[in-house]
């Protein structure tokens, strides 16, 4: 039986992980620590509130005393660190919050973990500090470049990716300097349930329903490797259960798409949903799909953002060969599930739309 502290567990990936973990490990104890900033939504965790093995604590990861208290009182043996500022556009206009949360916050957690788990150097407590990072720390790829591997040199190009790179290095340093038992995973772009509507896929989907523009940066030919969030959760589970202490594992979807092609696919799938379900036209009368028009009419090209990396792709050979990881969803199956979820859960995403 594990006792987990999940930071950022009310955010997109963290909340999916909490739901996944309690579903697949119902006897384990899960404590969520989240400051409930703009991207943290307590409603995502509402269905778990009556579960006796679940606890939610509102608090900031920069509060080392609070983290120490939770580690001791709950006898935590596994810390899974999702909490982060993660939106690149926001990091360009306001980088300070990214430095505070992603660097100082991670260091605060590491200090607390060291104080509790390594207090007696002769008898350290069994533990794991798992750090969730991003493929953006590796920089950008040309079209013909091989995918990033765990040995790719770091070359972050935005304040967001630079702050995540710094946090990765701190986690590594606490392992090599103090003996903290750590693992790190660097994931590709996630999508799926509970995704905050400012991100590309939920933004396009909900904008189609509201008859708002689908903004495409530059020529829309930026390439990303897309990972269904539940496949990410299963990858982290493998790292926690079978990963080697001190190692880093890339978790990807093996699924590269240009942004413009993703938007076209979303439009086609939403068009199909409206054609198959007449009730959608009455629920979303503003949508062009309600009038029999294609959602593609909303596509609008806008000026590319500063420092926009052209391509990311992570190689998954290490986690596949060593831990047996294999993503279960193709992009077509995962995006279809995602669209159906958003259509069925307007009460979740509607309050988040500006």
UniProtKB/TrEMBL annotation:
Its cofactor is NAD(+). Residues 5-338 form the NAD(P)-binding domain. InterPro entries: dTDP_Gluc_deHydtase (IPR005888), NAD(P)-bd_dom (IPR016040), NAD(P)-bd_dom_sf (IPR036291), Sc_DH/Rdtase_CS (IPR020904). It catalyses: dTDP-alpha-D-glucose = dTDP-4-dehydro-6-deoxy-alpha-D-glucose + H2O. It holds the Pfam family GDP_Man_Dehyd. The lineage of its organism: Bacteria, Pseudomonadati, Pseudomonadota, Gammaproteobacteria, Aeromonadales. The keyword Repeat does not apply. Keywords: Lyase, NAD. This is dTDP-glucose 4,6-dehydratase. It comes from the Bacteria. GO terms for molecular function: dTDP-glucose 4,6-dehydratase activity. PROSITE patterns: ADH_SHORT. It is an enzyme of class 4 (lyase). The keyword NAD applies. PANTHER family: DTDP-D-GLUCOSE 4,6-DEHYDRATASE-RELATED.
């Amino acid at each position: 039986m594990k006792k987990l502290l999940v930071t950022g567990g009310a955010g997109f990936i963290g909340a999916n992980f909490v739901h996944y973990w309690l579903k697949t490990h119902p006897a384990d104890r899960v404590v969520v620590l989240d400051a409930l900033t703009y991207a943290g939504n307590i409603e995502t965790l509402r269905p778990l509130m009556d579960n006796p093995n679940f606890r939610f604590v509102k608090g900031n990861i920069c509060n080392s005393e609070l983290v120490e208290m939770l580690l001791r009182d709950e006898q935590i043996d596994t810390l899974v660190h999702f909490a982060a500022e993660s939106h690149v556009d926001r990091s360009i206009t306001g980088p300070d919050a990214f430095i505070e949360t992603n660097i100082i916050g991670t260091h605060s957690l590491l200090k607390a973990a060291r104080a509790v788990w390594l207090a007696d150097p002769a008898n350290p407590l069994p533990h794991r500090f798992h750090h969730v990072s991003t493929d953006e720390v590796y920089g950008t790829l040309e079209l013909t470049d091989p995918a990033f591997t765990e040995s790719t040199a770091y070359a972050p190009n935005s304040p967001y990716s630079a702050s995540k790179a710094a946090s990765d290095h701190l986690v590594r340093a606490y392992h090599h300097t103090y003996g903290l038992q750590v693992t790190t995973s660097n994931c590709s772009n996630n999508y799926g349930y509970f995704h905050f509507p400012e991100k590309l896929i939920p933004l396009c989907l909900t904008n189609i329903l509201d008859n708002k523009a689908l903004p495409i940066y530059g020529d829309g030919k930026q390439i990303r490797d897309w990972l269904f969030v539940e496949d990410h959760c299963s990858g982290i589970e493998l790292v926690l259960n079978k990963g080697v202490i001190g190692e880093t594992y890339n978790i990807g979807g093996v699924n590269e798409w240009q942004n413009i092609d993703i938007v076209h696919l979303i439009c086609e799938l939403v068009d199909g949903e409206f054609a198959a379900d007449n009730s959608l036209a009455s629920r979303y009368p503003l949508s062009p799909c309600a009038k029999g028009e294609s959602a593609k009419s909303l596509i609008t090209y806008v000026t590319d953002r500063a420092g926009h990396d052209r391509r990311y792709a992570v190689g998954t050979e290490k986690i596949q060969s060593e831990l047996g990881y294999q993503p279960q969803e193709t992009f077509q199956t995962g995006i279809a599930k995602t669209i159906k979820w958003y259509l069925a859960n307007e009460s979740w995403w509607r309050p988040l739309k500006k």
